[in-house]
Write a structure and sequence with these properties.
46% helix, alpha/beta, 313 residues, 6-stranded parallel β-sheet
């Protein structure tokens, strides 16, 4: 039998420890960021917020990429406010975002019951959605515009009742690059008779080139991805590669992915391969994480609004 009376011990005070009171937060502090413990994800989150503010202070870009659930979760106004405050300098999204953004702008509601509509072949067959979006894309192709610009222009021109909730209208008004990257057949919009595949291909490809140009100036900036698990991670990787191939030395930027669970492509194509040690991955629901990020940014930006004047770079 072991004789535990012979165990060797040491002084607790002299032991090297990973956690110290210095990382502890004060729940009563009026500065919200100081209520977040300076450890693990909390430390990384505060570092990301500081880097976003530093990037804009130095007139470097902050690219906001997102999946359609950002709009479906009621977060459009947060994206719009960050564009208005000149925190976000470019947005990039997928085809589904166009649909939800338009429907909210048109009638103040979106997101149908897929199972119910699918059973009778009615899924995605709202006439206004199919007609107006496809007509905007067809016009955009004829004028050699990008897809995001075509949608923003249409929503603003038609003075849709709830257009103040449109991220595309806001981007069009603020003259911020808004690019849409589609996969033909993945969205309900391609089922409608007004759809012209060539127009979608042309406008989305124009947006890929526009997005690549934005990425070419990313050095010193920040790229964020909220919830796009496949499309945006793949598009970003190719845009980054194209920029470097054309001689743009894109480096020393910060990348962060936000999603409700771990996504392989986002982890590899946004956080790991491009940014390395300057990459962050945060797991949480968008309806919690985006307001948290927004409020945290406002904490640091308080009293510095002139730095982010929309008339400046």
């Amino acid at each position: 039998m072991l004789n535990i009376k012979k165990v060797k011990r040491y002084s607790l005070a002299g032991r090297k420890s990973k956690v110290h009171l210095s990382i502890y937060s004060n729940p009563h502090d009026k500065d919200f960021l100081k209520t977040v413990p300076d450890v693990l994800a909390g430390k990384n989150f505060k570092e990301l917020v500081k880097r976003i503010v530093a990037a804009r202070k130095n007139r470097k870009p902050v690219i906001f990429m997102f999946g359609a659930h950002v709009i479906k979760c009621g977060l459009s106004r947060f994206v719009i406010e960050m564009m208005k405050k000149n925190i976000i300098t470019a947005i990039a999204t997928n085809g589904a975002s166009v649909i939800h953004d338009f429907e909210l702008s048109y009638c103040g509601k979106t997101s149908e019951d897929v199972a119910e509509q699918l059973s009778c072949g009615r899924f995605g067959m709202a006439s206004e959605t199919g007609k107006l979006i496809n007509e905007a894309v067809n016009y955009g192709a004829a004028k050699n515009l990008g897809l995001g610009e075509s949608i923003g222009r249409m929503i603003e021109k038609n003075k849709l009742e709830f257009s103040d909730y449109s991220v595309f209208k806001a981007a069009h008004r603020f003259k911020i690059p808004a690019t849409v990257h589609v996969a033909i057949g993945t969205d309900i919009i391609y089922q409608h008779p007004e759809c012209d595949g060539a127009s979608w291909g042309k406008t989305s490809y124009n947006d890929f080139l526009k997005f690549s140009e934005v990425v070419s100036g990313l050095s010193g900036g920040v790229v964020l991805n909220f919830g796009s698990a496949v499309i945006l991670p793949e598009v970003f990787l190719k845009a980054l590669n194209l920029s470097r191939n054309l001689g743009h030395d894109v480096k020393n930027f910060t990348a962060a992915n936000f999603d409700m669970n771990y996504q392989y492509r986002a982890a590899e194509n946004i956080v790991s391969r491009p940014a390395g040690k300057s990459g962050f991955y945060f797991i949480g629901h968008h309806e919690l994480m985006l307001p948290l990020l927004y409020r945290s940014l406002l904490t640091l930006l308080r009293g510095k609004s002139s730095m982010f004047d929309t008339k400046k770079g």
